What we know:
The protein has 271 residues and is α/β, with parallel strands linked by helices.
Amino acid sequence: MRRLPLVCAGAGLFALAAGLFGWHEWPHKAHVQAAAPVCTGPAELAAIHHPLPRLAERVAQRAPIIIVAVGSSSTAGSGASSPAASYPTRLEAMLRARWGNVTSVTVLNRGVGGEEVRNMLARFDRDVIAAKPDLVLWQVGTNSVLHDHAIGGNAAMLADGLNRLKATGTDVVLINPQFAPKVLAKPAVATMLRLISTDAKAASVELFDRFAVMKYWRDSANIPFETFLSPDLLHMNDWGYDCLARLLADAIVDGATHAPVTAGLPVGARR
Length: 271
């Protein structure tokens, strides 16, 4: 009797087993599943250029750290598969992994969909300042652009909010709008980006340039919009939020590491 070549016999046995147990599904799925791109961002874009002295002080003293993420829907986590995939939740996990042997880290998500600067200011005392944060991440600007509202008045309101936050002794990082088709369709986005940058410089607070980072993903890293945005082509998806959180975590740790620490200041002195 003629023997089948070993490789063919093995293939035949696998085919038989596949037919019986449905194993044919597994190699097909493994073959078509696309690998996620590497999370990346140029150092000059995804960096903290101003020191974070309050955060550095808390780390040095091994004191608990409270971070408040305030903003609109992309802070709340719209587009994510679950609240656990929002950028504040992912950021908390990443900072705990970095600082877990030093201190505890809590990131409070204070995002409310649809809000503009005036809406956020109206709840600052309750949702932000009352938490006595060591760092505030303030995502702002997108909804005024999307709703075609006047941009100019935002400058004074943003400056007022930054002054109120700085008066509490907290560190502050602004986060500007996302680079997404629905935002890019609005000519006012350029004005909003300049306004946020100007106010950040005037107040000597950090600006995390989310718009430029996401533009880099699309234009330089050739990552399709669909890879980092949800199907609405406005909000970020799980990959986008996770990468944003990773880049923010790196920048925050670096900013706290290189900030001066006030020697002898007791824990909670500015609380």
